[in-house]
Design goal:
Length: 293
C-alpha cells in the first residue's frame, strides 16, 4: 500500500492569503512540493483548482509535475472536478457542461498517466434528495431518474475520452451504495472508498469493513480521514475530514484488513499536510507493523 496526500493544502493556502492580502496568487506547485519534501511519494491532484484559479496549470507547472514523476518517483491520481458539476442532475444543460468539464480534465492530465481518476458519479442534488428520503421504502425507486442520468454521463465520459473504464474510480458519496455499485458494475469501472464519508453516515451503513467487503473486487484506492455519526439529544451530528484518532475509524483493524486483502493501491489522506503528518504519526504509534510513505 502507498500513503499519499491531496495536492491542495487549504490550511496553508488560507494562512498565506492572510499574510499576503489582496495580491495573493495561488501556486499549485507549492503544496505539491511541500508534500514531496515531507516524504510523500503519491499525490492526488485536485483538478477543480485548475478551473477556479486562472492560469494555474501552465506549461511550466506541467513540466515540473512531470519532472517530479520522472525524477522523484512521485505517482499521481487525480480527483475530477466536483465544484458546481453534477453528472446525475436532471437539468440537461448542467449535465452536459459537467461532462465537458470531466472530459477536458482527463485529457488535460493524461500526460502524467494518473493511476486512476476519482469521479463522483452522482452530485450534490442527488445527495440532498437522498438525505431527505433516507429511511423511506421507496428511496431507491425515487432516485432511479438520477441514476439513469449518471449512467448516461458515465457512458459519454468513457466514449469521449476512450479511457479504460477501470481507471475511473467511483467514490463512495452520499448516495445509496447499492445503486452506485449497480452503476460501477454496468460500466466496469473501479471503486474508491472514502472512510470519512462512510463513518459520517452518508450511505446506508457506517461500517467501513462492510463497504470494503462489498466493493473489494473493484477497489483501487482510499480517501483516508476519520469521521463519526452520532445522535445527541435527538440531533444528528456528523463529521468527516478529521485527523486519524478523532473519530470512529478502528485504525488497527482497518489496516489489518488491508494487509489481509493484500491491498497495494494508494491510500490518500484527504487532509491538510499538517493533519496528514499528524495522522501518519498516529499510525506509527498505534500499529504493530511499520508504516512507510
Amino acid at each position: 500500500m502507498k500513503l499519499g496526500v491531496i495536492s491542495v493544502d487549504w490550511e496553508s493556502i488560507i494562512d498565506e492569503a492572510k499574510m499576503v492580502g489582496v495580491g495573493y496568487r495561488f501556486n499549485v506547485l507549492k503544496p505539491v512540493e511541500r508534500a514531496v519534501a515531507a516524504g510523500f511519494k503519491h499525490i492526488e491532484l485536485e483538478l477543480d483548482t485548475f478551473y477556479v484559479i486562472p492560469n494555474s496549470f501552465t506549461t511550466e507547472v506541467r513540466r515540473k509535475l512531470l519532472q517530479l514523476k520522472d525524477e522523484e518517483g512521485v505517482s499521481f491520481t487525480a480527483h475530477l472536478p466536483i465544484w458546481s458539476t453534477d453528472l446525475s442532475w436532471l437539468n440537461e444543460h448542467i449535465r452536459r457542461a459537467s461532462i465537458s468539464t470531466i472530459v477536458e480534465s482527463i485529457k488535460m492530465t493524461e500526460f502524467l498517466e494518473p493511476l486512476y481518476y476519482v469521479i463522483h458519479a452522482t452530485g450534490d442534488q442527488a445527495s440532498k434528495i437522498y438525505r431527505e428520503l433516507k429511511g423511506k421504502k421507496e428511496v431507491e425507486f425515487l432516485l432511479l431518474p438520477l441514476l439513469k442520468r449518471a449512467e448516461k454521463s458515465l457512458e459519454e465520459v468513457i466514449s469521449k475520452t476512450e479511457i479504460d473504464p477501470r481507471r475511473l474510480a467511483c467514490e463512495t458519496v452520499e448516495f445509496p451504495l447499492s445503486l452506485t455499485l449497480e452503476l460501477v458494475e454496468e460500466y466496469d469501472t473501479s471503486f474508491l472508498v472514502d472512510t470519512g464519508h462512510v463513518l459520517s453516515g452518508q450511505m446506508e451503513t457506517t461500517d467501513v469493513f462492510k463497504v470494503v467487503e462489498k466493493v473489494r473486487d473493484r477497489l483501487v484506492g482510499f480517501h483516508l480521514h476519520d469521521g463519526y455519526h452520532r445522535v445527541v439529544n435527538g440531533e444528528v451530528i456528523r463529521k468527516d475530514h478529521l485527523p486519524l484518532g478523532n473519530g470512529d475509524l478502528p485504525v488497527k483493524e482497518f489496516f489489518q484488513l488491508l494487509l489481509d486483502y493484500n491491498f497495494s493501491g494508494p491510500i490518500v489522506f484527504e487532509l491538510s499536510l499538517r493533519e496528514a503528518i499528524e495522522s501518519l504519526e498516529y499510525l506509527r504509534k498505534n500499529l504493530k507493523f511499520e508504516i512507510l510513505i
